[in-house]
Specification:
Helix content is 7%, strand content 43%. The protein has 439 residues and is mainly beta. The structure holds copper (II) ion.
């Protein structure tokens, strides 16, 4: 079926639908794009109403962004801003956020796929059933280079809200006072079919400023990949039968930050070293050092290491520079290709560098076509983050049928974006910094 899909993709690529068609989607897509001139909103908006997502969560936090749909990347979120209660204007976080590739190599070495640029990921956008967007809105998406050019519109983008459990809990001074809040998220997602798989591209915007991006894989194992017959498969049929071929899903995300509206963010790496307790000390000592990342970097995640993007222009009300910390999720790093050997790549922005592998942007003769090649010593003035999260899929009996969703992804979390917890209740607003009971 994979082969079938690729032939369909090639057939319709010949129709010559181009970047112009994608741009046209912004003006001719479904929705009342021109119908509702709202003076105040129009001034701030960088997209028409149909392409705007704005959600004020019950805790008072508002997320705003624009969406568009790219012929290769699928869902693209742009001009993302965060405005917790107590902030008088939106705080811009990202210029752009989207998938950067899904690379799928098979363990038996038979084949590998670049699902975004080589396999029609975007064209596989699925219609959503109203029941799978509970309490939300399903937007119509015009798919560029659609395989069904007479019907390019798909009800394929869900925006809704979801509870995530406790945002915090704290026992108050008086015995019967409990400060607690249930966190709320704005959820934005789409589903794209590639072969027999269905990928869920999920973006979670929490009311505390955290953004979590996850790729879920569900649908069905590809039937032609049974009976690997090489000892590398896992039997999911009776006895030794139907040995499904193991494979990896190496997902990339591309994040173009613009903290406080500026792309000139600084990258910092933090490492902590632990020294065993010296004589007379009760505990080991931990020393944390900051390393400015001034040039392009291929970074490896490890224990006691983290990175953050620091605003070039904005400070919070405690005069601390605003930043977003990268919080890696579980990952099985695939060493089989040069571009999957590192967990994160910080590259200087370049318009033609669009996909982490099998790049389709025209970077010119001699230019590399994968993200590792773009780490070549340039000074970072407008860093782009490429996050690589791998999942090694060894099938199991439970994968039939349908296959349960397996998730992979990571978060970015605010660090000093606000001077206090953005969800602080009014009664505790004075407890900032060195605070003592009764003060
Ligand atoms: Cu899989």
């Amino acid at each position: 079926m994979r082969v079938n899909r690729i032939s369909r993709a090639r057939r319709h690529a010949a129709l010559g639908v181009s970047v112009a068609a994608l741009a046209a989607g912004v003006t001719t897509g479904a929705g009342p794009a021109a119908a509702q001139p709202k003076a105040a909103a129009a001034a701030a908006a960088e997209c028409s109403t149909a392409y705007k997502i704005e959600q004020k969560l019950s805790s008072g936090t508002t997320w705003r962004m624009c969406w568009r749909y790219d012929s290769k990347a699928g869902l693209v979120l742009e001009n993302i801003s965060y405005q917790p209660k107590g902030e008088t204007s939106p705080i811009k976080v990202l210029n752009s956020a989207r998938l950067g590739q899904i690379h799928v190599p098979y363990d038996d070495g038979s084949v590998e796929y670049d699902d975004l640029t080589g396999f029609g990921f975007a064209q596989g956008l699925m219609n959503l059933d109203p029941g799978e967007c509970p309490g939300g809105t399903i937007k119509s998406v015009k798919v560029p280079d659609s395989w069904d050019p007479d019907h390019p519109n798909v009800n394929g983008l869900c925006t809704t809200t979801r509870s995530r459990g406790h945002a915090y809990r704290m026992q108050g001074d008086s015995a019967n006072k409990v400060y607690q809040a249930q966190g709320k998220d704005l959820l934005v997602y789409s589903v794209n079919q590639v072969g027999w798989y269905e990928y869920m591209t999920e973006w979670r915007f929490q009311d505390d400023g955290t953004i979590t991006m996850n790729l879920g894989a569900t649908g069905s194992l590809s039937y032609e990949d049974y009976d690997a017959g090489d000892g590398r498969g896992w039997p999911i049929g009776k006895g030794p039968r139907a040995q499904a071929t193991s494979h990896s899903h190496n997902a990339f995300w591309r994040l173009d930050f613009a903290l406080d509206g500026s792309s000139k963010n600084r990258v910092e790496q933090y490492d902590s070293t632990v020294t065993a307790a010296a004589q007379g000390q009760q505990a080991a000592t931990v020393k944390t050092t900051r390393t400015p990342v001034t040039k392009e970097l291929a970074g490896d995640a490890k224990s006691y290491r983290w990175w953050r993007m620091v605003s070039a222009v904005g400070k919070n009300k405690d005069w601390h520079p605003r930043s977003y910390e990268i919080v890696p999720g579980p990952s099985t790093k695939y060493p089989g290709r040069s571009f999957t050997k590192h967990d994160v790549y910080f590259t200087e922005y370049n318009q033609c560098e669009q996909f982490a592998s099998n790049n389709t942007g025209n970077c010119g003769a001699g230019a590399g076509e994968s993200v590792d090649k773009w780490v070549n010593g340039q000074t970072l003035t407008h860093p782009v983050v490429w996050m690589n999260v791998g999942f090694h899929h060894i099938a199991r009996d439970e994968d039939q049928q349908p296959m349960p969703v397996h998730w992979q992804g990571f978060s970015i979390a605010p660090r000093d974006v606000t001077a206090m917890n953005p969800l602080t209740p009014a009664e505790l607003a004075g407890q900032n910094g060195h605070w003592e009971p009764g003060s």
